[in-house]
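User:
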Amino acid sequence: MSASPPSPRPDEVPEALLWSDAPRRWWRRLLARLRNYLLAGIVVTAPVGITFYIVWQIVDFFDEWAAAFIPARYNPNTYLPFSLPGIGFLLMLGVLIAIGWFTASYVGHSLMRLGERLLRRMPVVRSIYGTLKQIFETVLSSSSRSFREVVLIEYPRRGIWCIAFVTGPTRGEIAQKHGDEELVNVFLPTTPNPTSGFLLFLPRRDLIPLSMSIEDGMKLVISGGIVVPETMREETSAGPQQPQRPLVAEELQQPTS
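Assistant: Predicted structure:
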């Protein structure tokens, strides 16, 4: 067998081979920079584009709905050389305002009460109508807040913390059956869809209130922890602070040494 030729020493490598890696490194840096620019462009334009797309779809839906009720001679799109968006949306706002004004009157209020009596006598419809009405009254009411404060709770076991929202004090049969200890209604949302979750009844002493607003708490839940509120950023930069876990009943009964 013939022996393989010895590898050349570094000082014997041709100069052309020494400079062959420079274009590769330049192309790699260029591709990495273009990738970063692409991701930054997506982060900037995607929320704005999706928002405008959803708003445009809503406006277009109301425009198509209003086109069936507005006579052609009263529709501005009949005379204009271009389509005028938003007419259906404005018409829907006007209809809702007119309905609200009518129901606020004595005659409208009486008709609404009569209609609710008929709906409450229907076996299946009454449960659906009652639930939806209570949800909309709670969310849209200006005199009360659907979510009162953001809290930390231990769920699903001790040592695991979750963000939840206090919806109000527990009343009725649940509060009476529990005893003298104060209970609160806590809504534990799921990530990234906060419309679903769990309704928990917890003692007030098991909650750790947070200083963040309801909007910041919802952003944190929807983003899965990616969007961090400014208050949490400041506390993180100042240093990690371990939250004080509420004492449970078993720990309160243990004698101190």
